[in-house]
Amino acid sequence: MKFSLGKWLLPTYVALTFIFMMIPIVYTFIFSFNDVEKSNIAWKSFTFDNWLNVCAQPEVCHAFGNSIAIAVISTLVSTALGTAIAIALGRYKFKGRSATNLLLFLPMATPEVVMGAGLAAQFLDLGVAKGFWTIVIAHIMFTLSFVVVTVKARVATLDPRLEEAGSDLYANASSVFWRITFPLLLPGIMAAAMLSFALSFDDFIITQFNAGPDTTFPKFVYTAAARGIPPEANVIGSAVFIVAIAIVLVVQLRSSLKAKRLAK
Amino acid sequence: MAFVALGQGGAKSSAPVKNSSKVAFILLAPGMIYLGLFFLTPLVSLVITSLKTASMTGVIGMYDYGFEPGNYAYAIEQYGPQVIRSFGYALTATVLALVISYPIAYFIGVKARGKPVLQALLLTLVIAPFFISFLLRTFAWKQIFSNEAPITQFLQSIGLLPSDQYIIGTSFAVIFGLTYNFIPFMTLPIYTSLERLDVRLVEAGSDLYASPAKTFWKVTFPLSLPGVISGTLLTFIPISGDYVNASRDFLGGSDTAMIGNVVEANYFRIQDYPTASALSVMLMAAIVILVSVYVRRSGTEDLL
Description:
The complex is a heterodimer of chains A (264) and B (304).
Chain A: H1 5-30, H2 49-52, H3 58-91, H4 97-105, H5 112-126, H6 132-157, H7 160-168, H8 173-202, H9 205-210, H10 217-224, H11 231-263
Chain B: H1 2-8, H2 21-50, E1 53-54, E2 63-64, H3 70-111, H4 116-127, H5 134-144, H6 150-157, H7 171-195, H8 199-207, H9 212-223, H10 225-241, H11 259-269, H12 273-298
Antiparallel strand pairs in B: 1-2
């Protein structure tokens, strides 16, 4: 077999691009071990202190806790509301379907700055003081459509005959839902919840417009950027990265192994 | 994760089976009312705010309800260059992201087909940047390209960069950051389209003596068009409203401000809410026009 350049060109390109994509991640991770106080710009020396005392910078910890709380609450609400919509879209005939689809598509096609400024203008007009709950309201709003899209894909794979079989066996509507439909939809609902959590946790622009004096992790990083981001922020960023990538790897590998088994 | 989900958006749905609009209404109402209250009416608030007039009391940040279309004229006159720059940056970064992403999506979707574990690993690598905070990864590039950084000094020493010029603060740095941050938004939808590509069609092309380039442009690319369309929209729209990359605290400088930066400054620093709102309304209008023309011309009506 002769060596062919064409055969190696694409894999090499892909490998190099992935290395390029990883550069800022590795950089953030390395600088989480930098022995500096506030301004984490130049490398000084190696330390574990930032990892061991993340809350040495109380602001970082407070912002992180807030981000988690906001992401959990908004994920619970948007997953519940979005799942109901996805079931209606996938299972029922109703009037106004195209208007519903349009209203669901629009938030995904609107720049964040427009949604953020619009909601902030509404809160300003109504005299609502911005803070924790206005951030939650904003996050439910912009994650909802993503939940619908994700769960809808799962509803589409559901065999309606399974539900019919349930009702043929005299199960009432609610036990058909909880014992048949819901368990079958669960992987899609979980994926939607994880997506919604990730979107909420990392959101900055909509949050900034509706946070008032309250802060989240991304807002903390944005504000701190002017005077230097403390290494504790890198610790939190790196730790979240490791946990998230572990979850995704497990989920992805499990489903791909399952696909492999089914293909045999 | 976001984009794996978006990729599934095109999955064909089975026909709705139940004909009970009462149940459908109960399921739809809470979420749709929510979107009405916190997505639609805010857009109306935005339009109303964009037409407000300065308060008679003269207090900064206080405005009266009114009808002042002059706010729009003022916004265009004052911030025309930033508006044009936003769309220029967004277009450049979108094209760059498309060129960089397509081969990756092709490799994962076509070449790695039949190797589910490899595919899963590569897809995880594509979305990996999403798991490190958007702001931290943008800030990392700022450090990597900082004025004292080895790469800047190297470029200056070989004369590619004049010794009194730096990377940070230039259009190059901002477009670089925008492209980097949105590559996964482009890769995943294209991957989803290519994953479903029937390889026999490509084989038929070469069997009929079409050159590989011709087969690509006549068969592969047209079949991946739905992915290219959603990818370009998912990249272009958020980029046009972004203000993190172009911020002076991140990759931008004094001459890189985009619409988002101007809206942010008007909202938070100057507290000129009407001008900030007028700019947002114009951005939204431009996006709506663009999306409807683009989607119609490309013939993909079923986006959701």
